[in-house]
Amino acid sequence: MLTKFYEFLNQPMIFKARIALALLVVPLVLAFTAPLWRISMVAPQYPQGLSMDVYAYKIAGGNDGQDIKEINVLNHYIGMHRLDATASADLDWIPFALGAMALLALRTAAVGNVRDVIDMLVVTGYVSLFAFGRFVYRLWVFGHDLDPHAPMKVKPFMPVIIGHRTVANFETYSYPQLGSWLLLVFGLGVAALTVWHLVLGRKRARASLGRGAAVAVQG
Questions:
Q1: Taking the model in full, what pTM does it have?
Q2: What is the per-residue pLDDT across 91-147, written as a single tens digit (0 to 9) for each?
Q3: What is the C-alpha separation between 49 and 62, in angstroms, rounded?
Q4: Positive or negative: CA dihedral 207, 212, 217, 219
Q5: Residue 118 needs a FRET pair 20 to 30 A away by CA distance; which of 17, 18, 74, 136 works?
Q6: Does residue 95 lie within any of the structural domains?
Q7: Which residue in 117, 123, 102 sits closest to 10, CA to CA?
Q8: Does residue 4 form part of some domain?
Q9: How many domains does the chain have?
Q10: Rg of the chain over all Cα atoms, to the nearest angstrom
Q11: Could you give the count of Cα atoms lying within 13 Å of 159 in the half-sphere of its Cβ?
Q12: 59-61 and 163-167: which strand pairing?
């Protein structure tokens, strides 16, 4: 049975699945152009709110970048790290990872087999979980690694990851944006193609066993 499974893994992909995987590269590439996450804040002194968008390669502030300056002023008062090139250095690996995923997907669509589809799913899951985990960790660091000499003393806190939270007199919001949904489309698509091949492989295995049983009866 294990031998049959290994033989199945080496079977070429279904042609329609190749086309589908190649098309899934489109939302993956478009994810570079859209924000992955948005964090916004509203307070009495900022009725219009402050916001920043996290892209795959940068952090951009609302109001033509002016919101980042205001957020950094607020961060200074409570001892949080500045949002600058150093803070966004954690994003440097993401474009390379997404580019590698796009190339791997195109390679799999062109000459891949079932094993390659499963590998594509594993790589996609790993990159997604690692990126999200790193994002959560960086938020934790921002909320806990506070300057003890800051003008205003604030108890260490965990910034909101998804949803809403009140911090001092600020209402903070954090939600995924278009880039994350595009990556989700790619990930779910790869998962669907993997399941498609596994279900097809199971049907073929059953059909093979059925033919074997019929031959044995005839013998």
A1: 0.86
A2: 888 999 999 999 999 999 999 999 999 999 999 999 999 999 999 998 898 888 888
A3: 9
A4: positive
A5: 136
A6: yes
A7: 117
A8: no
A9: 1
A10: 24
A11: 24
A12: unpaired
